[in-house]
Design a protein that fits this description.
The complex is a heterodimer.
Chain A lengths: L1 H14 L1 H29 L11 E7 L6 E2 L5 H9 L3 E17 L2 E10 L3 H4 L4 E4 L3 H4 L3 E5 H8 L8 E6 L2 E11 L11 E4 H7 L13 E7 L7 H8 L12 E5 L3 H4 L14 H28 L5 H9 L4 H38 L9 H27 L3 H5 L6 H37 L9 E5 L7 H8 L5 E7 L13 E7 L5 E10 L4 H4 L4 E4 L6 H6 L5 E6 H7 L8 E3 L9 E8 L14 E4 L7 E6 L4 H15 L8 E2 H6 L3 H35 L1 H9 L4 H35 L12 H25 L3 H7 L1
Parallel strand pairs in A: 4-9, 6-8, 15-20, 17-19
Antiparallel strand pairs in A: 1-2, 1-10, 1-11, 3-4, 3-7, 3-10, 5-8, 6-9, 7-8, 12-21, 12-22, 13-21, 14-15, 16-19, 17-20, 18-19
Chain B lengths: L1 E11 L4 E12 L4 E5 L6 H8 L7 E6 L2 E2 L5 H8 L3 E5 L10 H12 L3 H14 L15 H13 L5 E5 L7 H16 L3 E5 L3 H5 L3 E6 L2 E7 L1
Parallel strand pairs in B: 3-8, 3-9, 6-7, 7-8
Antiparallel strand pairs in B: 1-2, 1-4, 4-5, 9-10
Helix pairs in contact in B: 3-4, 3-5, 4-5, 5-6
The chains are: A alpha+beta, B alpha/beta.
Chain lengths: 799, 224
């Protein structure tokens, strides 16, 4: 019997090739989209899976005072304590992220992201080894490990293992030997170019060995014994490990390694590349289901609409002894056969589209057969086939054999279902267009909004370990007529996370004599910082950048400039000249004096509300040089900057960045979201239009006689085309009315994630409706015109 | 074999009520060849459909092989039909996607007959209808006469007690029409009960018994 069903299904595809193709194409596009999303979701869910002990590894996080809750930075000493004091713990290790430094091999330079690691690092993590043996680092502090990409940059295709490279650190040249080349998987939250052993770091910085307060960019990991789980009691016992041992200590918690990518609720520091978001995973799962449904709806509507062409067959089968359930099985198997063929095509299409898709989403997903893929294939055929085939199967098999033999009858119910499903498709498509337009609008806003900083023609140069010695370079460069101004200060673009030492608490007595306090984020900049970045001074004066004065205490108190938000929160009418208790961490606290107020500017992504800021000067934290270049003189000025840099700082690479581009990178998540939205909206529109195409083709075929009679009675072709268009316009209209509030509510909720957001804009809605309407009318006109302009005599004879 | 008592069929639409059969009493015995004649719309096809268990009467009793079937569900009517009743239609009603062999095989497939037996019985039926050489062709590749022979082969492949034919020669030229009538007569001679609706007096004369209908009633009945 099954053979019979399959045979009939295949012959049916051959006989009505157009409809079967539309049916299957809907499936193919739907399944391809769903497959791509599925692969993306699997990829998101399998971060850190290269680690054999993925389920036993935890990251140590600590609580912080202000609202952000937690940060993953702790101290190196914890690693040894976890190893020693907890029998459940198999191992513990840490990573200390460092700056982006220059390395050279002979005359070749590269800039590489450096991190220091504990000797146990490679016992806990399993970064795939390309060449060499990373464990050599344990015994010999001079042995280091580099990433595959770094090896390529430095040595091309030649072997890197055993080669000696020089690390330019500060004014020192530190020689190292490459022990191994590793692959750093994209799905690792720990990303590095070069790893150096902590013992090597200590050999240069002995005083840091017992520093219980130095948690900057230091991440500790714990690995439990195989099969053991962390209990609440364990967490309680580990909670006060640090607090008990040091005045700098904070309560600790442990976060499973597998949760880092998607379930991190606090803001990650910049060192951790982590753009995962569980909400986005849910969102795309819903999108995938919607597109699959749309493909399935096409099948349902077309098969149901086509039922009348099969009534004779149904009648014959019933008369010759087929029971209803046999017919249901037959029709379901037809949809399963089509779903199966569509799946094969979808797999091929997915394979073809993957490189493009990967480029869009910044991944390197491959199509490999695993149990997940097989599961998807099974679900694809059974789920989609049954979903799509169920209604037509039940509908067609219910027809009375006598009526069926006479050609059946059309019932109102069937028409309502088809219209309903087409409407649902339109609703999905319009909602997705609205969603896409709003995400793009918001992205454009995020990337181009006036953040209160003049980002035009601003070049950023890394002076991280050059510090005040970069000042002669600054003076030299200023001689160039195209360099308008130069500032040195904090790394603004990376300033996303407030570490303990980057926020300070200030207190003062208010008018009533009560002590009030405010936590402010500290930003470092010299006196040119304000002018170069276009910060507007509202009151008072800018910082006088005099390092000698700063350190000699000539100011008496630390001069600070606050922002508008801080001014508001101080609740003082004119705070210029006001003395506050507290100050920047490096100045040893003491007191500070407000010397000026600057207009609010966004120094954090626009997802965040502007927090109170105090700006001060210290030569210890000069990370970046900001060079303002005359408009249109970028190329030659950059060349000049490079020449001077290489001349004044030999053996270092000059890596300038445009501040505008740096800012754009902050919105990688939004960019990815909007691009994925765009891809799947286009696919959804294609699927919906294929459905419309099929339905129109079918109704023109079924209404050939009607068209003929109308024409014989005087109707013009354009009138007939208009008649068909009006019918579909009504459906688009109904869908539009439903899609608008759905789209609005959905996108309004999404936008509420941002402290700064675009207005949704009423015109987006009619535009979305108009897009669907025009594509629909185009689809209808192209087809109906042919049928309507045919000679009525032929139409009637044909009928 | 079949007994109809006061058989009534009324078709209702929202505004119109049409009485197609108006209290028909009829008995058909095994081995009979019955022809039903009458003008268009007199209810003869409706009667044939009720006798063939394709539809339920609005009122009255219908006995088929000793069972009262007027209230049977579609599924149980299908069960009863299967293997007991064969149908031949004016417009042949072959499935275009199936070959001649597969069309004839269909009733056996639905009856759950094994493949080996199916092949034997289909080949036998095709041989009997002298169309075996066309078994791999599709219906559109055959002439009308050939198609009707395939339809008859399908009707008899289950060795039914009764074959119901609704204007079996209506779409055929006289040569092919005669051939089909000869086949039906031969079937009847071999013991199959045949009930045929026809417009042709000539065809009706070949039957052993003839009833004439008008407006849902039996007008006359005659036997050879």
């Amino acid at each position: 019997m099954l053979k019979h069903y399959v045979k009939v299904a295949l012959r049916l595809i051959k006989r009505s090739f157009l409809f079967s193709s539309i049916n299957m194409l809907g499936f193919v596009v739907g399944m391809t989209a769903a497959f791509l999303i599925y692969l993306w979701i699997v990829d998101e869910l399998t971060f850190e899976d290269f680690n054999k002990n993925r389920n036993e590894i935890y990251r140590v996080i600590r609580e912080i005072e202000h609202a952000d809750g937690q940060v993953p930075s702790t101290v190196t000493q914890l690693s040894g304590i976890f190893r020693k004091d907890f029998p459940k713990v198999e191992n513990a290790t840490f990573v200390k992220y460092s700056s982006t430094d220059d390395f050279h091999y002979g005359d070749d330079f590269i800039v590489a992201k450096l991190a220091y690691v504990d000797t146990t690092f490679f016992d806990v993590f399993d970064f795939p080894v390309i060449a060499g043996d990373p464990k050599l680092m344990k015994k010999d502090p001079q042995q280091i490990v580099i990433s595959e990409e770094t090896a390529k940059r430095m040595f091309g295709n030649a072997s890197a293992v055993g080669k000696e490279i020089i690390h330019n650190f500060w004014r020192e040249q530190r020689p190292y030997k490459i022990a191994a080349v590793l692959k750093v998987p994209r799905k690792s939250h720990i990303q590095f170019d070069v790893l150096i052993g902590w013992n090597s770091f200590l050999s240069y910085n002995k005083e840091d060995e017992n520093n219980w307060g130095w948690s900057e960019r230091m991440h500790v990991y714990v690995q439990l014994k195989k099969g053991l789980k962390l209990t609440d009691t364990d967490r309680q016992m580990m909670r006060n490990l640090w607090v008990d041992r040091s005045q700098w200590g904070k309560p600790l918690d442990l976060q499973p390694l597998a949760d880092i990518h998607l379930h991190t609720t606090f803001k990650e520091p910049d060192d951790v590349c982590n753009h995962g978001n569980m909400q986005q995973v849910y969102l795309f799962a819903v999108l995938a289901s919607l597109i699959i449904f749309m493909g399935a709806f096409n099948f349902t509507t077309l098969s149901t609409a086509r039922a009348s062409q099969r009534f004779k067959e149904i009648g014959i089968r019933k008369v010759t002894g087929a029971k209803r359930k046999m017919l249901i099985s037959q029709f379901l198997s037809e949809s399963l056969v089509q779903a199966f063929l569509a799946l094969l095509l979808a797999l091929a299409l997915t394979e073809l589209l993957l490189p493009l898709f990967n480029r869009f989403v910044g991944k390197d997903i491959g199509l490999m057969f695993s149990w997940e893929t097989l599961l998807f294939v099974l679900f694809g055929i059974l789920g989609v086939g049954c979903l799509a085939g169920a209604f037509p199967a039940f509908y067609m098999s219910s027809v009375n054999p006598l009526l069926a033999l006479k050609g059946g009858k059309t019932t109102g119910k069937k028409g309502a279902l088809i219209k309903g499903l087409v409407c649902v498709q339109f609703v999905i498509a319009i909602t997705m267009i609205i969603g896409t337009m709003i995400t793009f609008k918001q992205l454009h806003y995020l990337q181009n909004a006036d953040v209160g900083v003049n980002t035009e023609n601003l070049v950023v140069v890394d002076v991280d370990d050059w510090r005040e010695e970069s000042i002669p370079y600054k003076q030299e460069v200023l001689k160039n007529p195209y360099v308008e101004s130069i500032a040195i200060g904090v790394d603004l673009s990376d300033f996303l996370q407030g570490y303990r030492w980057e926020t300070s608490k200030f207190s003062w007595q208010d008018g009533a004599g009560k002590v009030d306090s405010l936590e402010m984020v500290g930003l470092v900049g010299d006196k040119d910082f304000f002018q170069t970045l276009g910060l507007e001074l509202l009151k008072g004066e800018v910082l006088e950048a005099d390092p000698d004065k700063f350190w000699s205490g000539a100011y008496g108190v630390t001069p600070i400039v606050i922002n508008e938000t801080a001014w508001r929160m101080l609740k003082v009418e004119n705070p210029v000249g006001m003395i506050l208790n507290g100050g920047p961490f490096l100045s040893g606290r003491g007191t500070s004096r407000i010397i000026g107020i600057v207009k609010d500017f966004n120094y954090q992504p626009l997802r965040e509300k502007i927090r109170p800021v105090f700006m001060y000067y210290t030569n210890q934290l000069l990370d970046k040089m900001y060079v303002k270049i005359s408009p249109g003189k970028q190329a030659e000025t950059l060349k000049f900057l490079k020449e001077k840099y290489e001349e004044m700082r030999p053996n270092h690479l000059f890596v300038p960045q445009l501040f505008k581009n740096v800012l754009k990178n902050n919105y990688a998540r939004e960019q990815q979201l909007s691009q994925m939205f765009l891809i799947f909206t286009v696919l959804a529109i294609i699927v919906a239009m294929m459905g419309v195409f099929g339905l129109v083709a079918l109704s023109t075929a079924q209404r050939t006689k009607e068209i003929g009679i109308r024409k014989v009675n005087g109707a013009h072709s354009d009138r007939i085309v208009r008649m068909f268009c009006l019918e579909y316009m009504r459906w688009v209209g109904i869908a539009f009315v439903i899609a608008c509030p759905v789209g609005y509510l959905f996108m309004d909720r999404w936008l509420s994630n941002f402290a700064y957001r675009v207005a949704i804009g009423w015109w987006l809605f009619p535009l979305a409706g108009l897009i669907i309407l025009s594509v629909t009318i185009l689809t209808v006109v192209v087809q109906v015109w042919r049928a309507a302009s045919r000679n009525p005599v032929t139409s009637l004879r044909y009928e | 074999m079949i007994r109809a008592i006061n058989l009534t069929k009324v078709f209702r639409t929202e505004s119109v009520e049409t009485t197609a059969l108006n209290g028909i009493n009829l008995e058909i015995n095994e081995g009979e060849f019955l022809a039903i004649m009458g003008p268009s719309g007199c209810g003869k096809s409706t009667l044939l459909n009720l006798l063939g268990l394709l539809d339920n009467p609005t009122d009255g009793e219908l006995w088929f092989l000793g069972q009262e079937v007027s209230k049977h569900t579609e599924n149980s009517r299908t069960d009863l039909r299967n293997g007991n009743i064969g149908f031949v239609f004016q417009s042949f009603n072959l499935i275009d996607e199936l070959t001649v062999f597969e069309n004839v095989e269909l009733p056996l497939l639905y009856a759950g007959v094994s493949m080996k037996e199916r092949v034997e019985r289909v080949n036998a039926a095709l041989d009997r209808m002298q169309i075996a050489h066309r078994s791999e062709h599709f219906p559109q590749q055959l002439s009308g006469g050939q198609q009707q022979r395939v339809a008859i082969a399908r009707a008899i492949v289950t060795n039914p007690h009764i074959v119901l034919a609704d204007e079996p020669t209506g779409n055929l030229d006289s040569v092919n029409g005669n051939e089909v009538m000869n086949l039906l007569t031969e079937l009847n001679r071999e013991g199959t009960t045949v009930v045929m609706v026809t417009h042709s007096e000539e065809n009706a004369r070949m039957a052993g018994r003839l009833i004439r209908m008008i407006d849902g009633n039996i007008l006359t009945e005659s036997r050879k």
